[in-house]
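Every protein is a chain of amino acids, and every chain bends into a shape of its own. The fold becomes a row of whole numbers, each drawn from a learned catalogue of backbone shapes. The protein below has been through that process, and both of its lines are reproduced in full.
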Amino acid sequence: MNTRPLGATGPAVGALGLGCMGMSDLYGPADRTESIATIHAALDSGVTVLDTGDFYGMGHNELLIAEALRGRDREQAVISVKFGALRDADDNWLGVDARPAAVKNFAAYTLKRLGTDHINVYRPARLDPAVPIEDTIGAIAELVRAGHVRHIGLSEVGAETLRRAAAVHPIVDLQIEYSLISRGIEAEILPVCRELGIGVTAYGVLSRGLLSGHWAPGRAMPAGDFRAHSPRFAPENLGHNLGLAEALRAVAEPRGATPAQVAIAWVLHQGQDIVPLVGARRRERLTEAISALDLELSDVDLKTIERAVPADAAAGARYPEPLMAHLDSER
């Protein structure tokens, strides 16, 4: 697999990363054996970034990754961890805690669950409105100096926060949603990332399945699948949004590709500083995603794709309001 730089100060990583959240949480039940086999297949294919969060399954996801990496070369994986999101035993979201003491506490638990002596990229999951970003980044920088963290990242923040954070310590990447139908970073955030040498790890490249071509109208969602509460999957929006996937299929099939592969390839073609994260939970979906790396798109192809699925064409917000990130530009 080709590699891409993770920002100006980070390591070279596989051009696709694996988002592991769905193996533990928020998309309904997952098969543990298949999840581990998918992580192994990803690593064997040249995927290096394994993205997780300490709150995915309340630590379950980190334990799963630890099990998958047991007996393997630790340096094969670039483990990216989000921290700070607070949940209770009933799966309610309680806010964000990015105080320096909390940062160090969360990191200690993550290191223990992962069974490793370092986290490759450590990042707050969201901006904590009660804590200056300088304090949070300063605490992670102390972990860097101690050898517990290799690099610092950010997640779902705006341009102002990027600048303030980068003034404290180099930031390797911003993890943020970016897809054909979630293009809000293009106006301000992406240019600032490029100005500061910050890479982008793009999640939601298939818009949680909407652009995959595998979602059928009337599909039942299992218990625990947060898409049951997502505005884009609401009955009044779903038909319209699935129509976008069908428009993408019309572009994909003459190229011998699937809608998912074209959607991933479009993100890959937006710049060498962008690493798409694919949330495959099964090897067959991982194989489909990796094949997008072989899909060459011309400028004409890119324009055709964007006509089929225009920016802001989706109906409904990315998240239910309580889970929306409060970017600087939204304040």
About this structure: The chain has a mean pLDDT of 91. The first helix runs from residue 32 to 44. DSSP finds ten helices and twelve strands in the chain. The CA atoms of residues 90 and 243 lie 35 Å apart.
